[in-house]
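Attaching the record inline, Q. Sequence:
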Amino acid sequence: MSPRTILGAGNDTKKESIVMKKVLVLGASGLIAPHVTPSLAHDYDLHLTDVKPHPSGTPTDHVDVTRYEQVLQASEGMDAIMNMTVIRHDIRSFAVNTTGAWHVMRAAAEHGIKKVVHTGPQLVRRDYDHDFDVDDVPLAPGTNFYGITKYLSMEICKIYAREHGIHTVCFLFNLLGAKPTEPASMRDFPPFSVVWEDLVHACRLALEIDSVPDHFQTFNLMSYLSHGKYRADKAHRMLGYAPLERVEDYFKRRD
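Structure, as predicted:
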């Protein structure tokens, strides 16, 4: 684990060995992790892994989530695992999304790792878009292949988490992206949209929380709450999550 140097009062330099949690990041070169890990790297000892090069050239180790022996080896000595691997519209979806999640939880159980952060798509809009104030409801993956593979991954995570005492946080969202920096027009913010800063904030909360009820919980994650259709009350209640900024204010009419 890496010691960090901190500055004391005046010109004195104090060296303090701070134990940083070692976190395995699977899918570090994908569509999500490159926007999250740079901020997390200040406070966590991240082991970045993927099967393809990092888009920014950041060094990563080659780990194929569909190969259990590779996941097992990469997980050794870790305090937590963040699984951000995903394949959406491809026949390999089952191998990565479902079998990969099984490998993550197997490795966590074998190494005695007690914290896993999992991610997935919201699986409620198909059946609940007509309603309001929807929070913790039964997931409805429908017949979409991608949705089914991610739903199965959550069921696997739930079983392993409860059987082996692995506190597993699963974030559900729809769209991810940068927050607005100026007044927005001619565009919308659909339910379950999350800005990168809020996802980083949520990941920190997930890594730091000691436990979650029943060892496994799914959480609606969103940055825009003003539509009132879907809520993140459970994430606020159990994790302390709330959007860092009222980003919907960028969409207000300005006369």
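The mean pLDDT is 90. The two ends are 55 Å apart (CA to CA).

More tomorrow.
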